[in-house]
Design a protein that fits this description.
Helix content: 40-55%
Mean pLDDT: 91
Radius of gyration: 21 Å
Strand content: 15-25%
CATH class of the largest domain: Alpha Beta
CATH topology of the largest domain: Spore Coat Polysaccharide Biosynthesis Protein SpsA, Chain A
Number of strands: 11
Low-confidence stretches: 308-316
Number of helices: 11
Structural class: alpha/beta
Strand order of the largest sheet: 3-2-1-4-9-6-10
Length: 316
Amino acid sequence: MSAVPVVSVIIPCYNKARFVGEAIESALSQTYPHVEVIAVDDGSTDETPDVIRSFGDRVVFLQQRNRGTSAARQLALERASGELIGLLDHDDRWLPHKLERQAPLFSDPEVAIVTGPYYVMNEAGERLRESAPPDPDRFGVHEWKRENHIGTNNTMFRRDAALNAGGFDPTIRGCDDWDLWVRIADQYRTVCLDEPLAEYRSFPEQLSRHGELMYANRIRVLRKLRRMHPGCDACERAYQDGVQIARAKLRGYVREVCAAGFAAYERGDWREAWYHYRRAIRAWPGLLRDVGLLRVLASLAKRSMVGMPKINEDKG
């Protein structure tokens, strides 16, 4: 690897015109000297492409029809010129010295992933808290198969290691980073820098949009990784543990959605309440055996017949 390798920053973009400029600017403002920024528009229907174009030739602009984040990342990975890759989502930000701090750790040829903690910020970009640093004891391939325990926006990796491992799987829409981390970790080491160098933007609507999808994708990745080492007892144990972890996360999501539904019910937003309860039941049909919930739904049905206030139904 070069003494000062080029780092290609991959930014998949979809309908985030409001924030994508911040993400790109944070990549272009790095103190590290050799940076290539690649923004891939995944079929946006808003002004996202215009925002990307406004950066001119400072950004490599790629476009594709809407195929999802994993396909966008793979497209950029194949086109990238850098030896190292950094992933940045369209609504997140990097601290200016992120690449300068992480890139030197790749001087060890056995290291292919560098990660660390990150800041969580709200929609307005205000920091709320710092994530817990990843546990190095969980970087072993079988432990990593159970669940993903690192964030994407503060992780870098070797391009050749990723390509040799097969790259991002475009058939997986979510958890595609976890799938790749495990395949890379099967051949290389991962190191952690205990310093938050990125900012992850958290939205209230993420709860309702991603719970069911994330569960389905976790199970899909677990089944794929289960076949990684045929006949391996440790892989089978990791798979079984992973399924239980995924179900526990789904239960947590369902509890939160039900709480949102009940809060809407109490304030008289019947349509909002139905929206949350339908999502919860679709994710966990066994809820219909809960007598208390059935009473709430019966009351909600009766009140809804009287009249519902008009509120926004445009839920993702």
